[in-house]
Amino acid sequence: MSKIVEKLVENQRLEPKELSYLLEDKTKELRQELADKAQKISKETYDNKIYIRGLIEYTNFCNNDCYYCGIRKSNKKAKRYRLTEDDILKSCENGYRRGFRTFVIQGGEDPYFNDQRMIRLIQMIHKRYSDCAITLSIGEKPRKAYEEFRKAGAERYLLRHETANKDHYCKLHPKSMSFENRMRCLKDLKSIGFQVGAGFMVGSPYQKIENLVEDLLFIKEFNPEMIGIGPFIPHRETPFKNNQSGSLNQTLLLISILRIMLPKALIPATTALGTIDPNGRELGILAGANVVMPNLSPVEIRKDYCLYDNKICTGEEGAEGITCLEKKMRLINYKIVIDRGDYPGIIVK
Ligand code: 5AD
């Protein structure tokens, strides 16, 4: 094993300079070495289990205007929809039958779904599916709202930090959004007792290697239970339409480094990874990921939850393709399990 990989495995951290060196991705051999180590570490905690999360994209209305995102407020061409409570519950039912024990309620920051409506929805899902985990991915809210959501029965929250560098954050978001508030949200979520997911896009506009190093150091220190990363992919109706996509190999490399730095984290092979490469999700798992998030939304609306161009949504990445996904996982010696897939050591009430 090369010295630097040995050191990373031993200490679960590296100096910024050493991380930069790894991120320069000089050789295929080094990347492979990191992936092999990462996979081995993932198996020490999770064996060859892959956890599945049913993603319910319940609204694409959004008050925010993030420059990279296809459902940003200024995209007047986006066809907007919101699911009814009934649609959402039907999606859960469909997912439950297929073996999902985690539902991820994800959407734009849609004022229609105010705290009261969200609380009601969470309570209903929690009551009907008491053996399932509810994950929210609904953006920045006041602490009080997060507390209420937690009380109502949500246990996990995904909120990517997007970048750990304030200047970079300002280049990706309009003035109405702030780095400080994003960080405040993450800290609140953690202190309230959510299992929290942070993360970022790989190859986002203006991102430098040193920013990725800052992301790694931030994640190490914040110690989230879940880490979502995927390549940036341009969307034709956004200011970043002419920017390049993030690279497959850099994403895989980062998954491996993150797995070694945070051995127990739940790390998905994301839809964006599956979009830039037909084998993206398998490659993500072979690089150290242990979660996949098939789409449980009603098929008709999936194409409208379009954060980036060509987002996969009609093939086996959907929940109805689970048998196919199972086969693919078996081919790389992994198995999909029917399980909530909590962070190790979490006590489920
Ligand atoms: N490419 C890749 N990922 C994107 N996201 C938003 N827009 C894009 C894009 N163009 C990611 C963001 C957000 C998550 C829900 O999707 O990181 O947090």
Explain briefly what this protein structure is.
The chain is of the alpha/beta class and 349 residues long. The chain has 14 helices and nine strands. The site of 5'-deoxyadenosine (5AD) has 12 residues, from loops.
List keywords for this structure.
349 residues; alpha/beta; six-stranded parallel sheet; three-stranded parallel sheet; 14 helices; binds 5'-deoxyadenosine
Walkthrough of the structure:
With 349 residues, the chain is of the alpha/beta class. It is built from 14 helices and nine strands. The strands form two sheets. A six-stranded parallel β-sheet has the order 2-3-4-5-6-7. β3, α5 and β4 form a beta-alpha-beta unit. The longest helix is centred in the N-terminal third of the chain and has 19 residues, at 28-46. The radius of gyration is 19 Å and the shape is globular. 46% of the residues are buried. The chain binds 5'-deoxyadenosine. Residues 68-69, 160, 162, 201, 230, 232-233, 235, 272, 307-308 line the site of 5'-deoxyadenosine. 5'-deoxyadenosine is lined by residues 68-69, 160, 162, 201, 230, 232-233, 235, 272, 307-308.
- Low-pLDDT residue intervals, each spanning 5 or more residues: none
Strand content: 5-15%
Report, as a whole number of angstroms, the end-to-end distance: 43 Å
Which secondary-structure class do the elements indicate? alpha/beta
Small molecules held by this entry: 5'-deoxyadenosine
- Over all CA atoms, what is the radius of gyration? 19 Å
Number of helices: 14
Helix content class: 40-55%
